[in-house]
Design a protein that fits this description.
- The chain has 202 residues and is α/β, with parallel strands linked by helices.
- It is built from eight helices and five strands.
- A five-stranded parallel β-sheet has the order 3-2-1-4-5, with helices on both faces.
- The radius of gyration is 16 Å and the shape is globular.
- 41% of the residues are buried.
- Bound molecules: iron/sulfur cluster.
- The site of iron/sulfur cluster has 10 residues, from helix 5 and helix 8.
């Protein structure tokens, strides 16, 4: 069943606004361009901490470049509430262990589902340990990413770790298009592949 996660998010934002609440949100981010629209959209309603955890990225120099770009964007973007930053460890062996046997999968297949789950699980753990009100990810902004699967993983992690998952589909409402505009505006480095060695080869 296809659920409209954007509508879900809009209802929640309306509720929070009516109550005058600004909850904390741990926002897993894959890169600065994908986070640009999400930060522009959500920073009026949440106190956001970006969580950059992406052991899937190959090679390491690319991982570092995306991390630096993420920090630069946080410093320069206009936001009502201050945006914090946490970087997870770069542990590519964790990615290779979940991708084992799935190396030949096309982008958008089973390897990607495991890759979403790996990064979201780490976000759920950090959110739980640091008592965030919500956690979510920028991943759904990409037209190549399966928002249903991402939200389903988020819901399972909520049940396991007790931190509410912020249901979302950031590609809706022209989110992806806006992220391209913002990338130009902030002169962001936009990579031409998702992240791992397997999709880089494709
Ligand atoms: S294509 Fe992207 S989402 Fe899929 S496994 Fe590679 S890095 Fe992860």
């Amino acid at each position: 069943m296809n659920i409209n996660y954007q509508k879900h998010l809009e209802r929640l934002i309306q509720e929070l606004t009516q109550k005058g609440q600004t909850p904390s949100l741990l926002l897993h981010s894959c890169c600065a361009p994908c986070s640009s629209y999400v930060l522009e959209y959500l920073s009026d309603y949440f106190n956001i901490t970006i969580f950059y955890y992406n052991p899937n990225i190959y090679p390491e120099v690319e991982y570092i470049r995306r991390a630096l770009e993420q920090k630069t964007l946080i410093k320069s973007i206009t936001a009502k509430n201050k945006i914090e930053f946490i970087e997870g460890g770069y542990d590519p062996e964790r990615f290779y262990s979940i991708a084992a046997g799935l190396e030949q999968e096309k982008e958008g297949g089973e390897r990607c589902f495991k890759c979403y789950a790996l990064r979201l699980k780490e976000a759920a753990i950090i959110a739980s340990e640091n008592k965030f009100n919500y956690f979510t990810t920028t991943l759904s902004i990409s037209p190549h990413k399966n928002a249903n699967k991402i939200n389903q993983i988020g819901e399972e992690l909520y049940e396991k770790y007790g931190v509410k998952y912020l249901f979302s589909d950031f590609k809706k409402k022209n989110g992806y298009k806006r992220s391209i505009e913002l990338s130009k505006e902030y002169n962001l480095y936009r990579q031409d592949y998702c992240g791992c060695i397997f999709c880089k080869k494709d």
